[in-house]
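Quick one: structure for this chain?
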Amino acid sequence: MSKKDYTVRGMTCDHCAGSVTAEINKITGVIGVRVDVKAGRVTVEADEAVPDGAIAEAVEEAGYQVTPRPASSDAGARKAAS
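Got it. Here's what it folds into:
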């Protein structure tokens, strides 16, 4: 299983989150999507590696801009929070 975080710009409400979630869930292998509108963050869980391009295409189809979040920044943020 893989888990990856993305920064998504332009989301402002629950409807935005629903649109992004619906598009990402169409991708083969995706088993979970968590959206944090306030943080502009989307976490995608998949049972196989999903290319960043597929995620980007889905988010852009929903009408938003996306950037993969570096894995090291998440680890550093979790360490700093502990």
